[in-house]
Design brief:
alpha/beta, 22% strand, Rossmann fold
Length: 167
């Protein structure tokens, strides 16, 4: 695990939603692994929950792996893929891809990142605790983080952790 410096906040407020891909088949070519039937149901359940709770404007950024694209497809909106979100990429690549916090907060308002373990868990840990740790995000689950301003200081708040079994 390569340590990454914790980012500092500046600019506007933002929602960052980390969405781990749903359950996928085993297979010899990692990037071509598709969702299982259960995984498709997980993705649909989470997408339904997200559609009910998302603001009007949001963007989706996904790893180009088949299972993450299929998870993002469940939301039924256009999204971009970014190779910096591939499995086993590091947290620094994720921060660069999502332009956290400067570019994301100003341009997007709400960004959904569909990705993989262990990096999504490490990213959540870094953002929440200022250190990378191997936090686990369940298959198909979302972690919804928001920035806010309190007493003239930017803070990060964990708004929700929801798994497919909870929707």
């Amino acid at each position: 695990m390569r340590a990454c410096e914790p980012p500092t906040f500046s600019g506007g407020l933002m929602n960052l939603i980390l969405w781990r891909h749903a359950e996928a088949e085993d297979g010899p070519v990692d990037l071509k692994r598709a969702l299982t039937g259960r995984g498709r149901k997980q993705a649909e359940r989470m997408a339904r929950w997200l559609r009910e709770h998302l603001p009007d404007r949001f963007e989706v950024l996904a790893s180009p792996a088949v299972r993450t694209c299929q998870t993002a497809d469940a939301l039924g909106v256009e999204y971009r893929t970014d190779r910096r979100l591939l499995p086993d990429s590091d947290v620094a690549h994720h921060l660069a891809a999502i332009e956290w916090p400067e570019g994301s907060a100003k341009a997007r308002g709400t960004l959904i990142v569909v990705g993989h373990q262990p990096t999504l868990g490490r990213l959540a840990a870094l953002l929440m605790s200022d250190h990378e740790h191997d936090w686990s995000i369940r298959k198909g689950a979302i972690w919804w983080l928001s920035t806010r301003e309190r007493e003239s200081a930017q803070q990060l708040v964990l708004r929700a952790v929801i798994g497919p079994e909870m929707t």
